[in-house]
Amino acid sequence: MKITDSNVIRFHLQILHGITVKSLEKNKKRLFVGGSKIFGVPLENLARKYIPEFGLVPCFLVDACSFLLERAGTVGLFRKSGSLPRIKTLRAKLNSGEGCLSTALPYDVSTLIKQFCRELPEPLLPPELHAALLKGEALSSPQDRTSALQLLSCLLPARNSSCLHYLFDFLSKVSERCSENLMNCSNLATVFAPCLLPPPNKAEMSEGRLKLRVLVLHTFIESPHLFGVIPKAVMDSMEFLINFPLLKDARRGHRKTQSLKEKTAPWIPARSKVKPAVSEQSKESTSGEKPTLRRSIGMETFPNILLFRSCMPFAVQSFMPDAALSDSHSLDGIEACPHEILKRDLRFVNFSRFARGHGSESSPVPTGVGKLQLTPWRKRISI
Predict the structure, then answer these.
(1) DSSP annotation of 356
(2) d(C-alpha 309, C-alpha 289), whole Å
C-alpha cells in the first residue's frame, strides 16, 4: 500500500473531514474517435504533449494557452465572447488538423478553450467528486478546506489531473495581470464554473451552491501549486500508519492469504449419495433435544420392548447361578425367583427414562422415582 493509494486518501478524508467519496467508475464505455478531431473527443483520443511539470496535456490546450499568455493583458479575457462565425470557422479548421491559432483573435481563442472544456464527453472534474468538493469547501476552518480540496484533487485520474493542473496554472498567470485585464481569480472562477463544475440539476443551481462551485475553482486558481499535492500533515500521518509495525504484520498476513487464495484452485467436494454414519455421542452433543428411548439404551437392533422382555428370563436363567436363585438373602431383601424379579424390577412403564450406572462395567439400567442399586448378579447380565 502506497501513500498515494486512493483508499488511503479516502480514509483520511473520512476521518479528518467527514467526507465520503464515491469510487470513480472505471468500467465506463470509452468513446474512441479517430482522426484529428478536437472538440467533443475524450482526452485519451487527443494528441497530447508532455510537459515536465504537469505531464501529458492535450496539444490544443498547450497551443491555445501559450497563444493567450502572450496576450494576457487583453481586457475582459475569457469574459467577453468572440465572434460566432469566426469561432465556427476556427473549429472546422482545428478539427481538420489545420493550425490556425496564430492568426486568431484572443477573444475567439478564449472562447474555444471554454468550449473545449465544456464539450468533453467526461468532465475534467468527474461528477462523482462534485458533492465531496462542495462539502470540502463548506468546512469552517480555512486550513481544513484547503486540506480537503488537496486530498480530493489527488483522487483524479492522471490525464484529468495533468490537464487541470496545466489549466489552473495558466489561469493563475492570467490573474496576475488583473490590473490590465480586470480578470482576477474570482472572475475567472465564475467564468469557468459552468465548464468545469456544471450543476447536474436545478436544485444545484441555487445561489449558495453556485457560490461554492466558484469558491472551489477560486482555491485552485489562486494556489495551483497545491493541486494534486497531499498536505504535509496528512503525509506524516500516512507514513506513520503505513510504517506502523502492527499494520505491517497485518498487511503481510493479508497478502499471504490472498496469494494462497489466488494460487490454490478452489476444491468442491463431490456429493456422496451415501450419508456417513454419525456416532451417537456426536448426535447427543450436537442436538439439544432429549434422546429417544431406543438410542439411550442401545437397542437399535430390537424391534420393540416386548421382545426385549421376552428374552430377559432366558438370559437371567443362563447367566445367574443356581446358588443365587436359591439364596433368598443374597439379593438384599428381594426374593430369588427370577420371574418375580423381572416382573418387579423390569417394569419399563414405571420409568420415564434409562440411564447408565456409575460403574464403568455396569449395563444400562432403568431409573425412575425409586433408585435401583446394581447387584453383582445384575452386572453379569448383558443386554
Answers:
(1) E
(2) 27
Asked whether 382 and 365 are in contact (CB, 8 A), the reply is no
The CA angle 341-346-350, to the nearest 5 degrees, is 125
Sign of CA dihedral 134, 25, 163, 45: negative
What is the residue-wise DSSP string for 251-262? Answer: HHHHHHHHHHHH
Query: What's the CA gap between 29 and 53, in Å, rounded?
Result: 30
| Whole-angstrom Cα Rg for the chain | 44
Closest CA to 152 of 202, 227, 264: 227
Residue position matching grid coordinates 496564430 = 102
End-to-end CA distance of the chain: 69
Assess whether pLDDT exceeds 50 at residue 154: yes
Give the pLDDT confidence of 106-143 residue by residue, as tens digits: 999 999 999 999 999 988 999 999 999 999 999 999 99
Residue 76 burial (10 A CB sphere; 0-12, 13-18, 19+) = middle
Strand pairing partners for 259?
A: none
Name every residue whose Cβ is closer than 8 Å to that of residue 50 and which is 6 or more positions away in sequence. Answer: 56, 57
Section 264-272 average pLDDT: 51
pLDDT for res 5: 77
The C-alpha atoms of residue 32 and residue 46 are separated, in whole angstroms, by 10
Alpha-carbon distance values, 55 to 28, 29, 382 (Å): 23, 24, 92
The full length of the chain comes to 383
Q: For residues 18 and 10, give the distance between their C-alpha atoms in angstroms, rounded to a whole number.
A: 10
Predicted TM-score (pTM) of the model is 0.63
Three-class DSSP category at 353: strand
The confidence score (pLDDT) of residue 257 equals 55
Measure the CA–CA gap between 36 and 94, rounded to whole angstroms.
8
| CA–CA separation, 381 and 117 (whole Å) | 99
Which has more confidence, 17 or 318?
17
For residues 19 and 130, is the Cβ–Cβ distance under 8 A?
Answer: no
